[in-house]
Amino acid sequence: MNADAVSTEDPSSPPTVPSTVVWCCGRPYVLEGRAGRARWMGTDYRGRPESLTSAELQRRGWSHRRAS
Which segments carry the region annotation Disordered (predicted)? Predict the structure, then answer.
């Protein structure tokens, strides 16, 4: 097996690359900040700014694609 093909990141954990966009609860969230202080920014169901930690995003369920 090619060592480059093996990912050390847990696939169920949110990505850690800044400016990455993921979907959670039907809304997009963007990773802002740097390692250790990063936060996922999006909006709540009323359109207000909402900040989530990676753990909160993982608990709520996230994906790389918008649910259809």
Answer: 44-68
